[in-house]
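haha ok so turns out i had the wrong file open the whole time. this is the CORRECT one, sorry everyone. sequence first:
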Amino acid sequence: MKDRIDDLQIGGLKIYQNDELYAFTSDAVLLANFYKIKNNAIVVDFGTGSGVIALLIAYKSKAKKVYGLEIQKVMSNMAKRSVELNKMQDKIEIINDKIQNADKIFGLNSVDVVVCNPPYSKKGTCKPNESDNQRISRHEVEVNLEEIVHSASKILKEKGELRLVHQASRLGEIIEVASKFGFRLKTLRLVQSFDNTSAHLALFRFVKQGGYGTEVLPTLIMNNADGTYTAEVREIYNKEKL
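then structure:
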């Protein structure tokens, strides 16, 4: 399957996608819109994939610079082409490297915000029909949760923020790992597919060396009973500014 160009339905932004590699989902859009980015912030998107989070944050916020870090060469090249397509080279830089090398790339205590839509599943749970690209994007084969949080702790400034979207079933583990590396959970929002289902996702905002006290936001319901997006989700997709 050849690459296609999708319309992000905001500000004329467009993005290259390829379903045989890995196409972004609503999870990435929710994370990009989760919390305001401070003006002039330096933002790093761990595992940027096709670059959708980097594009949305760069467009919607007044961040000084957004970096997309991606281990897969084919995906980083696709993200670079999307940046060029939207003429955002002055604000976004895509880097083809490992998340584990983030401190060597950016330096210690140099970044304001790290965002990450990581592989959700543990290593060893891959399906036989998954491509190598899909396997890397979905499973902890190249980087695991602890390595992501550890790398973020190195490059973030004091009071810098780590923002994650992840499976709600791993909530306890995520908070424990974050605490191990000096993060405190400051904002949490659970996400449900429908009003009568359990939460399947969680959005986290951790602060490096932050104090205790967590704001638990109202649960986000994704779909109406007929399967269409709820008014709040449509508002998130159409929101022009963070």
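Residues 73-85 form the longest helix (13 residues).
again sry for the mixup
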